[in-house]
Amino acid sequence: MYSSKTRRKVAPATANGGESADKLDQLLLSSAICNGEDLGPFVRKGFASGKPETLLHHLRQFSRAKESEIEEVCRAHYQDFILAVDDLRSLLSDVDLLKSALSDSNSKLQSVAGPLLASLDSYVEAQNISKNVDLALKSIVFCVKLMELCSRANYHLSNNNFYMALKCTDSIENELLDKTPSSTLKRMLEKKIPAVRSHIERKVNKEFGDWLVEIRVVSRNLGQLAIGQASSARQREEDLRIKQRQAEEQSRLSLRDCVYALHEDDDEDGLDGVESDSNGGTGLLGFDLTPLYRAYHIHQTLGVEDRFKQYYFENRKLQLTSDFQVSSMTPFLESHQTFFAQIAGFFIVEDRILRTGGGLISKIEVENLWEAAVSKMCSVLEDQFSRMQTANHLLLIKDYVSLLGVTLRRYGYPVDALLDVLSKHRDKYHELLLSDCRKQISEALAADKFEQMLMKKEYEYSMNVLSFQIQTSDIVPAFPYVAPFSSTVPDCCRIVRSFIEDSVSYMSHGGQLDFYDVVKKYLDRLLGEVLDEALLKLISTSVHGVSPAMQVAANMAVLERACDFFFRHAAQLSGIPLRMAERNRRQFPLNKARDAAEDMLSGLLKTKVDGFMTLIENVNWMADEPLQNGNEYVNEVIIYLETLVSTAQQILPAQVLRRVLQDVLAHISEMIVGALFGDSVKRFNINAIMGVDIDVRLLESFADNLAPLFTDGESNQLKTALAESRQLINLLLSNHPENFLNPVIRERSFNILDYRKVVTISEKLRDPSDRLFGTFGSRGSKANPKKKSLDALIKRLKDVN
């Protein structure tokens, strides 16, 4: 569908063949105008042809044609227009009638509604007054509520109940302030609410600052209490172990099976006394976290929680840094407990805050603080340990540090780095301990008077004998009791036992469970290097007589038993079975000192015996008849030895006495053989040899008389000390000396003799018939077969030589 406004194109009429060109131009122009086309071409054509008048004429004709069309249209619609005007006039008359009717109705309505409008105005005025009164009442009620909240906030402020005061101010600000009808009151509240919050924040920060000051003192006391309780728990464990060892020892020594049980008291308080308040404090030390949590809660309410967290962490970090300071004016030995207790209390408090603080401090922050504390404590320990030259001081600090580790490990803090520092200085501690023991042992040995120890009371016997298990019998002796050892023995035992206990004390509670090998290594050094060398020095410089030498030898025998106790004691304290300790036992660590003591005693006895053996020069080597009771020298020697044995058996163990006597008898035997072999004896006869035989028999009888003191084997060993002299005498008294040449007989009966000595001594032997002029009286008589055998022996031995 086309729009009604669209012009309809008029097609030019086709001219008849007879029409003129002007008529055609007029039609084309009319068509172009009707179609709304551009008339420019027609104008240009008209002017170009020089006939613009023709164009103008055509235009005028078109205009007249259109005017005529308009007139026709107007004439066609004129009647309708006249009818419309008539209708409009009739409508105007109706409107006038309606207007007059409306005016009459309006006047009537106004006259009737006047009183009603007056009543309505009164009603509206009254309603407005009522609304104003209601609004005033609501405003008054609102202001009363607001003032009540303000009064309540003031009351809470006066009672330092800051949280409730803040809740009141928040209610005022969030619920009432924007609705406050009074602009004055609103301005006052807008000014006072921030002031109230600032006042609360200042008050809370002041309380928090006071708490920071107080918590340092509380932390130190708390750390000391916690470490003290750890020490008490450790002591209870030690007491329990001591009871267990005593029970095991009684069971081991008892002849019958012993059934025993150890009951540990139910004491599980541990550190529970330190932590008893669900709010983060204890009544025991006044350890109260309420001011901290209150400040944290208030800052949460104020909306500055993160700022307070940072403020708290920085202040606590500064306090910890301050706790790290070690005073150079006070020895560390005196201040170390306060130093470590302060740090322990700090982290006990932080652990409580971490668990109950509601996110006030994070686990990462606590771990960072702990790492810094461990690093500082390790550096302090390294520095202080490097300066210390006293083992006891180092041990005291180590014990306290280990208790600190036990205490803080309960709260989940890793303490391996601290224990590593203690282990690192293990060797230095033991070197200092060995040095201290060397001084103590030197002083104890220097004070020894080489006298048997007198004990008047049973407690002295228990303290000096039973406590080191050096008794030879389980029967308690009568008092006063004279011990076979001098006072040096229990003094040295106490020093060694103290060394073991100190060594175990350092090694225990240090993170290493199996430390017996370490303790044993240093115990071997103490016995083998310190005590053994000190005893050797004592023997070589201070022992100048038989009595002191005998006392030292007796002491060595007792120390040998004590060494067994030392290793058992070390094993028990280290918590390993005794069978394992016995399995790893080495030989007696004081071998050198024991051998030196016995050699010194033997040497002194030999020197004494040498004095009596000089009487061998008085022997008549060409006696006419043998002596019946032995020579003078042997009688003197036996008297001395019997006197010696009667004294020595009171203090010397049988094995030591046997070894010493065996050495002395062997020396006597050598002296007898040496006298026969030496240049001082030119010749001797058979009667002299028979006298020496009696001497040897007397010595053998002396050895036999000592049999009750020794076992059969030891008694036989004692007699073998005289074997050389006995074999030589038997050979010289034999009717067939040439049997010495028989290897079987020589191995059985003369295995100790030296054939060179046999040749020399045999040449000195002369028969009584060989005396001066003896050959004249015996001329023609039969030759002595023993002499012939002896001559053959001498000749054969010389040939061999």
From TrEMBL:
Family in the record: Belongs to the SEC15 family.
Domain of life from the UniProt record: Eukaryota
Residue stretches making up the Exocyst complex subunit EXOC6/Sec15 C-terminal domain: 418-764
Keyword annotations from UniProtKB, A to Z: Exocytosis, Transport
Pfam families hit by this protein: EXOC6_Sec15_N, Sec15_C
Taxonomic lineage of the native organism: Eukaryota, Viridiplantae, Streptophyta, Embryophyta, Tracheophyta
Span of domain Exocyst complex component EXOC6/Sec15 N-terminal: 58-227
Name of the protein this chain belongs to: Exocyst complex component
Source species: Xanthoceras sorbifolium
Gene3D superfamilies: Dsl1p vesicle tethering complex, Tip20p subunit, domain D, Exocyst complex subunit Sec15 C-terminal domain, N-terminal subdomain
